[in-house]
Design goal:
This protein is of the alpha+beta class. It contains 8 helices and 15 strands. The chain has 2 domains: about 120 residues, D-amino Acid Aminotransferase, Chain A, domain 1; about 160 residues, D-amino Acid Aminotransferase, subunit A, domain 2 (D-amino Acid Aminotransferase, Chain A, domain 2), CATH 3.20.10. Bound molecules: 4'-deoxy-4'-aminopyridoxal-5'-phosphate.
Length: about 280
């Protein structure tokens, strides 16, 4: 099956999908998106993702033309057409097509795009061994809680990580760890799971919320407050959370071993619990 795209009412092969160069997503990055993945063919946490999409759109005064039920129908239809064992579903809404001018157009219909591509989970050996990361200055704008298609600072950070041969760039603003370029970051210090608080500095990850809940259920104390880069390096464990990375131990940051230098017991436990939750 080819990759599938939906653009403004029509499904077709992704390779044939087009939007206008006057689309405000292309001109200004004036749009929002979500990424949902399937487990055993079923989309995971669809309500949470759609709720965040609505929050992001609302923050930008962007009208969404679809109800949650309509999104769900489109997602199911895309999955039916694509038939991959596991699928990465991408949803994007922009402020639509209009002559290039910064203020919102008086009238424009939003552009709605979904894509359906085969999802290849991280190799089990990578998850078991853990990954390396590097710290990188967080130069993003002041509303990282909005899942906007403006990802240039994330792109630059991830590119630097790739050049350095590490998996993720951990972003640091004014000495404080915010999140990863494509993930949330959690540390374990003195038996406490600590992660940056919700607010304008981070994207409130769907996976983050599930993992914090799992930690609480296990009786592991949780703190939502910032850690410094030094505290990150001195933590007994560091792990990433996200739709595509799930719970992924980080064993080295900036070349320094985290804890024993291999995935710690809390990361492994939460990874197993998350696996059970999605399974
Ligand atoms: N932060 C950023 C910057 C991200 O791009 C992502 C991935 N969407 C996350 C955190 C994790 O969010 P989620 O768990 O909802 O995938």
């Amino acid at each position: 099956m080819p990759d599938i795209a939906y653009v403004n009412g029509r499904f077709g092969p992704l390779a044939d999908a087009v939007v206008s160069i006057e689309d405000r997503g292309f001109q200004f990055g004036d749009g929002v998106y979500e990424v949902i993945r399937t487990y055993r063919g079923q989309p995971f946490a669809i309500e949470e993702h759609l709720a965040r999409l609505e929050r992001s759109a609302q923050a930008l005064q962007l009208l969404i033309g679809q109800t949650r039920d309509q999104w769900s129908c489109l997602i199911r239809e895309g999955l039916r057409l694509s038939q991959f064992p596991e699928t990465k579903i991408y949803l994007q809404i922009t402020r639509g097509q209009a002559p290039r001018d910064h203020p919102f157009p008086v009238s424009s219909a939003p552009t709605t795009v979904l894509t359906f591509r085969e999802f290849h989970p991280l190799d089990v050996s990578v998850r078991n061994a853990g990954v390396q990361a590097m710290s990188f200055e967080d130069i993003r704008w002041g509303r990282c809680d909005i899942k906007s298609v403006n990802l240039l600072a994330n792109v630059l950070a991830r590119q630097r990580a790739k050049e350095a041969g590490v998996f993720e760039a951990i972003l640091v603003r004014e000495g404080m760890v915010t999140e990863g370029s494509v993930s949330n970051v959690m540390v374990v210090r003195n038996g406490v799971v600590q992660t940056a608080p919700e607010g304008h500095r981070i994207l409130s990850g769907v996976t983050r919320a599930f993992v914090l809940e799992l930690a609480r259920k296990e009786g592991i104390p949780v703190t939502e407050s910032f850690v410094t880069r030094e505290e990150l390096l001195a933590a007994s464990e560091v792990f990433l959370t996200g739709t595509t990375v799930e719970v992924l131990p980080v064993v080295r940051v900036d070349g320094y071993a985290i804890g024993s230098g291999s995935p710690g017991s809390v990361s492994r436990l939460l990874s197993r619990r998350f696996e059970a939750l999605v399974g």
